[in-house]
Amino acid sequence: MTNPRKLAILAAALAALGLGGLAWTGTLGQASSGQAQHDDQGEEGHGHGEEAGHGHDEEKDDGHGHGEAEGESHAEAEGQLHLSAEQIQAAGVQLATAGPQTLGTAISFPGEIRFDEDRTAHVVPRVPGVVESVHADLGQAVKRGQVLAVIASQQISELRSEQQAAQRRLELARLTFEREKQLWQERISAEQDYLQARQALQEAEIAAANAGQKVAAVAPAGKGNRYELRAPFDAVVVEKHLTVGEVVDETSNAFTLSDLSRVWATFAVAPRDLDKVVSGRGVTVSAPDLGAQVEGKVNYVGSLLGEQNRAATVRATLANPNGAWRPGLFVNIAVTVERFDAAVVVPQAALQTWEEQTVVFARTEEGFEARPVKPGRRDGDQVEIREGLAAGTVIAAAGSFVLKSELGKGSAAHSH
Fold first, then answer.
1. What residues does 282 pair with on adjacent strands?
2. By the number of CB atoms within 10 A of the CB, which of 6, 19, 225, 290 ranks highest?
3. Residue 38 pLDDT more than 50?
């Protein structure tokens, strides 16, 4: 074989070996690259898996943590209301401060407002006659000495005539006495004449005084046969049975006057409670129809029991400056039987029932907080708080039911 041919075969062999090496190297590189990529993908997938799994676990943990946080926030928010001052004012919630107060336990009785009989008068004419004029109307307030009516009376005329005659006889007796006295002193007449003149003067003075007293007793004012019927004290005309032209006498109930600045609250007490209701005990009289109450004291406890109700009549005198407590009004009378000092007292309106417990809504910076309390004794619309609230705490009084309603809505939404 010639040299050129040998060289050509050697070159072809070397080229084939080079191409084979290159192909093997490329395959190995691809395999290595694929393996590396597979490893990377595996690691990345594993990493993603771990990361995803870990992330899922973290989500689970986060979910559990969120549940715990929500539970904690709910636990913190349970019984709390976040309200601004404007919202509180718009809801009509009124605030009060819990504090010490003197309370009393009481027994309640139904009662009735009546006239103060010590200041009620049935005005009747003292002489018979005919009504000439009437100057007072029903419901009118009158002053002491004010003329209510004028009556023309023949008896008044006779009494005044008798008084005038007695005055004239007295004047004559006085002149006779002075003359007889002078004559006796000058020893012109006998002493017996002087003594008789003195006796006649004394009898005339007695007769004149008697006539004047008769007129003053029935008609202290007026002229001729006119008799003026006057008010005995400041009062209100509550009854009127008199008209012009009517014939009246001493038995006619012309007017009934009553001083309504004071009234009586009367009620019946059974024998079992008479040892608790005694004179001097304080009472609180309230009228649901008026929405008002007034304080007073028991000033009379009956010694006898009624034939029908077998109870003793008790009364308390009340001041009635504005005339709001009208006779005939039905009232509730609470008689205080015990007084005590309570450390913490709140209005009755502040107590609400929430989740089967008694609570009050205490003011906080964010709004209100429902605080369970233990109520004690009561006195009207005031309640003693034995546990759960400190003195000086600002609470919701009137309108606290609105807060209870809002708290109920929040609990319902959370349970849903």
1. 297
2. 225
3. no
Q: How far apart are the first and last CA of the chain?
A: 102
Instruction: Say if CB 242 and CB 131 are below 8 A apart.
Output: yes
Give residue 151's region: left, alpha or beta (phi > 0; psi -120 to 50). Answer: beta
Domain covering 83-100+341-415, topology: 2.40.420
Q: Which two tokens stand for residue 129?
A: 């006659």
Q: What is the pTM of this model?
A: 0.53
Determine the Cα–Cα distance for residues 157 and 227; give it in Å rounded to an integer: 9
* Tens-digit pLDDT profile for residues 128-141: 888 989 999 998 99
What does the pLDDT read at residue 113? 93
Q: What would the two tokens of residue 57 be?
A: 């676990």
Q: Are 83-100+341-415 and 106-117+260-339 in the same CATH fold? A: no
Cα–Cα distance, 37 to 42 (Å, whole number): 8
DSSP H helical ranges for 78-190: 85-90, 154-185
Question: pLDDT tens, 79-108?
Answer: 678 888 888 888 888 888 988 988 877 788
| Strand duo 147-152 + 247-248: pairing | unpaired
CATH 2.40.420.20 applies to domain 124-257: no
Question: In the structure encoding, which two tokens stand for residue 147, read together?
Answer: 């003329």
Domain spans of the chain, in order of start: 83-100+341-415, 106-117+260-339, 124-257
| Mean pLDDT, range 326-351, rounded to an integer | 87
> Would the pLDDT of 268 be above 60?
yes
Tokens, residue 216? 């003053």
Mean pLDDT across 253-273 = 91
pLDDT tens per residue across span 60-70: 444 444 444 44
The pair of structure tokens assigned to 262 is 């004071």
For the beta carbon of residue 285, count every other beta carbon within 10 angstroms: 22
CATH assignment of 106-117+260-339? 2.40.30.170
The answer on pLDDT for 6 being more than 70 is: no
Report the pLDDT value the prediction gives residue 115, as an integer from 0 to 100: 93
Burial class (CB in 10 A: 0-12, 13-18, 19+), 11: exposed
Contact predicate 147/134, CB 8 Å: no
Distance CA 313, CA 306 (A): 8
Both tokens assigned to 182? 């002078």
